[in-house]
Amino acid sequence: MGNEARRAESELDHAALQRASLQAVREAIRSGRYRRHTAGLADGRLQCNLVILPQSLALDFLRFCQRNPKPCPLVGVSDTGDPRIPTLGRDIDIRSDVPRYSVYRDGVLTAEVDSIFDLWRDDFVAFAIGCSFTFERALAAAGIALRHIQQDSTVPMFRTTRQTVAAGPFGGGMVVSLRPIRRADLDRTVEICRRYPLAHGAPLHIGDPAELGIASIERPDWGDPVPIAADEVPVFWGCGVTPQNAVIRARPPVCITHSPGHMLITDVDEFAETPILETQGPG
Fold this sequence. Notes:
Blueprint: H1 3-10, H2 14-17, H3 22-30, E1 45-54, H4 55-67, E2 74-77, E3 101-105, E4 108-113, E5 124-130, H5 133-141, H6 147-150, E6 157-163, E7 173-182, H7 186-193, E8 205-206, E9 232-238, H8 242-250, E10 255-258, E11 264-269
C-alpha cells in the first residue's frame, strides 16, 4: 500500500469528530488525519478565521479589522515571528492546527496545503478573526436547523457589492455567509446571534440577495450551495473570508489564510466576554 493510500485510510470523517473533545479534534487536525470543514466540531469553543501577513503590512491590516468589525471581529494577534497565539490556546501552533491553508502570492491563490511549517517566516504576524461557526451551536440548541451542517458541507459564501472601509492597501467588497432560516425562526435567530459580536453578531441582511449584488445563490464564490425551502428566507452574515477578498485586492507578496470553512479552533469559551485566556500564575 502506498503512502497516500495509507494516509487516506487513517483519515477521520466529520461524524467521527463531532462528539470528540477539543484536544482530540486538534490532534486529528495537527496530525493530518482530518482535513475537512470544522463546522459543528468542538462545541462551545470559539472558532477563528486566519490571516498571516509580513510585519510590514500588519499595521494596515490591523486598521482594516478595526474599521470593519462586523466581517472582521479581531480576537487575537501573534507576536512577530511567533507561530503561537497563547491568548487563544496554550498549545496552539498556527503552522499545523488548521485543516487546510490557502497561500496567496501577489494576490493570487497559488496553493492549498495541510501545514505551513516550510512556509513560516520570522517576519510573519498571524491574525485570528471570529467566525460565525461559533454561534451555530446556540442556534442548533434552540432548535434552529442549519442546512450546511445537515448536509455535511461548507457554508456558502458570496462576494457582495457592499464595501468595506479601506486601510492602506486593504479594502474592497464585503463577503457574506448564507444560512436558510425558517420565517418563524427569524426573530429568535437575530436575537441569539446578537449575543456573539466576536462571531459576526446579528445578520447583515435578510431576504433578497440581489440587494447585496449577489446574482445567484446557487453559485457561491466559496463553499457549497444549499437549497432554500418554501418556508425559509436567505439570511446573510458578515464573513471572515472578507480579508481574503481584501488580500486579492491588496496583492501582498505573500499571505496565508485558512481555506474557507477550515477554521482555527481555540480554547476560548464561546461565551467569554473577551477572547483572552486567563494567564496561569507561577508554579
